[in-house]
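Ticket #4471: structure output looks truncated?

Reporter: J.K.
Steps to reproduce: submitted the chain below (210 residues) through the standard prediction queue, then opened the result file.
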Amino acid sequence: MIAKLAGVVDSIGDGFAVIDVGGVGYLVLCSSRTLAGLAAGAPVRLRVDTIVREDGIYLYGFADEAEQLWFRLLNTVQGVGGRAALAVLSVLPPEHLALAIAAGDRQALTRAPGVGARLATRVITELRDKASSIPVGATASPVAGSSLPGEAGDAVAALVNLGFRPGDALSAVAAASRQRGEGATVEVLIRDGLATLAPQGVSSGSGAHA
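Returned output as attached by the reporter:
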C-alpha cells in the first residue's frame, strides 16, 4: 500500500502525472488543482491513496490533506468512484465543495464531468451532515468553516463563536452566500445567518446567546 510519493515529476498528462522515485515511474491520477501545482522536472511530494480493483492498482495523488479527505468522503457515496471524485475536486476545491454541499447546490456539482443531477443530489444528501467535520483548507483550523475563503469563512467563525453548531453555521452562511452573491459583506452574511439560526437556538452547553 503506497501512502506517499516523494520524487521528481517526470511528465504530466490529462488527469495524471508520472512521478520518478529512484528511477521508478509511478503513474498517479490527480485533480486539475493538484496538477496545476506540478511542473516537469520539479521535485514533488504527494499524499497518495492506493485503490486495488479487479482491473488494476490505481494511485490517486493529492497536494494537501483537505483534498485527500474530501476524496475519501466522496468515495463513500454510492456511484462515486475515484475518477468521479477527482472530477468533482477539479471543479470545486475543498472550500467551495463544502459550501456547495451545505447549500444544496446541485448545479455546482454537475459541472464535474460524469456527475449528473441524480448523483449530485445523492452527494448532497449523504454528505451534508458529515461535511462540517472535514477540514476545507490545507491549514484549516479546528473551527469548521473558519478557513473558508473571504467573508464566508469569517461569518461562519463568528456564528460558531456565538455558540451555533459548526455544521448549522456553515449551512446558514452557504445559503446566505448563494442568495446574496459574491459581493456580500461579512456583516450581511452574519445577519442573514442569525435570521436562519436564531429560531433553532445555540448548541447545548455553549452558554452563548444569539
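Triage note (M.O.): checked the attachment and the full C-alpha cell line is present. The first strand starts at residue 4 and ends at 13.
Status: closed, working as intended.
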